[in-house]
Amino acid sequence: MGPTMRSLVLAELSKLRSLPEAAIAAVATVLLGSTIAAALAANDRNAYAGPVDAVLASVPFVQLGIILLGILSAAHEYAGGQIHTSLAAAPNRMRFLAAKSAAVALVVSFVSTLTVGAGLMVAAITRPSQSAMAASGGAVPSMLVGAVLYLALIGLLAFAVAILVRHLAPALVVMLVLVLIASPLVGAASEHARWLPDRAGGLLYLPDTDAVLSVATGAAVLLGWVVATWAAAAATFAARDA
Amino acid sequence: MIQFNSLSKRRGSQSVLSDVTFQAMPGRVTAFLGPNGAGKSTSLRILLGLDRPTTGTALVNGQPYNRLREPLRFVGSMLDGSGAHRSRTARHHLDWVARAGGIPQRRVNEVLEQVGLAGAGRTRVGKFSLGMGQRLGLAAALLGEPEALVLDEPVNGLDPEGIRWIRSLLRGHADAGGTVLLSSHLMAEVAEIADDLVVIAAGHVVAAGTIPQVTGGYSSLEDAFFGLTGGEEARR
Amino acid sequence: MRIGNYFLAEVGKSATLPAGWAGMAVALLGSLAITVLNAFAVRHAAVDGTPEMVAGTSAFEAGFAAMPIVGVVAAVVIGVTTIGSEYTADRAESGGARQITASLAAAPHRLSMFSAKALVVICFIVVAAAVAIPGNIALSQAIIGDVGTETVSTADAVGRSLGTTLYWVLMGLLAFSITALARSGVVPLIVLIANGSVVSFSLLLTLVTPLAHWLPDMAGRQLFGFPSELVVEGGLAPVPGAIVMAGWTVVMLVVSGIVFHRRDA
Description:
The complex is a heterotrimer of chains A (242), B (236) and C (265). Chain A has 242 residues and is mostly helical. Chain A has helices spanning 5-17, 20-42, 51-75, 82-89, 93-126, 142-165, 168-189, 197-202, 215-239. Helix content of chain A is 74%, strand content 0%. Chain C has one domain (2-262). Chain C has eleven helices and no strands. The longest helix of chain C is centred in the middle third of the chain and has 35 residues, at 110-144. Mean pLDDT of chain C is 83; it is low at 90-96. Chain A binds chain B through residues 1-4, 7-8, 10-12, 14-15, 18-21, 76-77, 79-82, 84-93, 239-242, and chain B through 45, 48-52, 65-72, 75, 77, 79-89, 92-93, 95-97, 99-102, 140.
């Protein structure tokens, strides 16, 4: 059966911790999120009425860092021959992929929580004093939880895409096109854009409402994207030559 | 013991391996010899479960590699040099391999010492020379104190001292009852190290046996090699 | 003659690399899909007599809508891969072999090689633009036919197409320079593709300081020639904007060229 699941997850966490690119991506994500949230909160010319709104408005930017983190954790196996070492140590591919996915889920959830938390803190500090903390423009704090959930799921989607395509740059382009390009362009031309992962998942943290999807079903659609992509990645990963 | 039983592999319409059958026995150094592109690496990758055979099996102690309970304690392997990501330090690389293999962390220091990288543990793998990368790959192979060693072109890039060192390492491992399977295209090296030879050309095993058996009828191993592998044209 | 040989070698390198074609494919297939969606939406609105459902019924606008965003992705991908592929580690990487070593051995005059690569970026993008822009507009006209009302004059259409091509080329060269400086395509891919979308760092910066309108992508955006009611207010007019963007590009190319020339590969 091979090594225990616990030791495999710990090994994957250790891999991510000792990879400078991943550490830089994580730190950059937190800093980027905090900077944007602080700048939006400090700005009195715009509609970001409270710190919560400022944090939520930073999520589309923060997701770029989370996507990079998810992709790096998969694609770095294939930059050079590390995947051979990984599979020599954990020859059961499904267990290896399960352990890796669990480690990535932990890391992206942690970084997302940290980013949203740090963003909220600095936004509360930089907020001009005339409006109290409580003054929140339509955003409710539960949306912050939604934002963390959204970010973690998008990170896992990016990870699954990277397992599927094995290279960093193509995986990055696919994810960026999916969340940045496809949704506004398709959204302008067709109402079916609501089924795209970032649109459906966006209901978790955006004040928008949708005629068909609710917060829960929107989250379920995003989860469906993650599960389907992961399943495709797992099937491919199990079948092909490493 | 390592067994290859009627291994065949096709990629598209191209036949990479056909009916490869041989064994590597405990207590002996078995060299897998053949020109570039003959199928040596593919055979070893199939043994380690990295590539899928079209038909046939490759077994370690009677089991496929991916069924082994603690693979790193049975087989130490090295393919493609270091097998490490270039941005990671050597020590961090061995750290995660040990963790995944359920091997105590103290072994990391021991193998770094053993392969002569004790001073380079904090260096990033991307800064390593070819020979140092090779030594790191060997360190990972030795981590689990495995019974069998499977090494693809292990002397590649090593300096004369390194070659001498690996020779004594492999000899010692076999003399202590371990199994050693290595691939090479360097005949002089193989003649020095190996007890048994398996010669492969264009995906077929063309000769197998002890060195005297394989070289019988030829004046040298080199003549035997070119005679068996079809000479210059097979090298392309 | 040297630059000519280098140029042909670089064309060969890019043309034999799947990533080079990926850039082209993004431009052509991506824009195609969007144009089909757009054109059918416009056609239905026009036929049903509900033109208020769409922004307008111009076949040119429907075919052109994808150009700024999708085309910029393609330009950035072409710029990044042309130089980024040199720095990707070899699979068997004890010592981490990279193609740049072989490239510089074959073409030791670095500035010529750098210029040849930049030239390749320009050529690939111009070809992509020459196929994608007229192709999408023709497709849109074929789908919408006579039911729409064309609001864009031919002269405007040509001007905007040329402006868009210029924007793509400058964007591709910026991506190329940043990748050469960073020896990695990750940052330019993220920042430049994001900036071409609604999640734009430059746009965000304009909230903080009006100076952000002088950033290359903000300065050049009037080159697309969208009607003023459709774009974010402020910023530079098309011609000064193009000059500012071109200035950025030249500065970045010079800086990255000097760095490429001086540093250890």
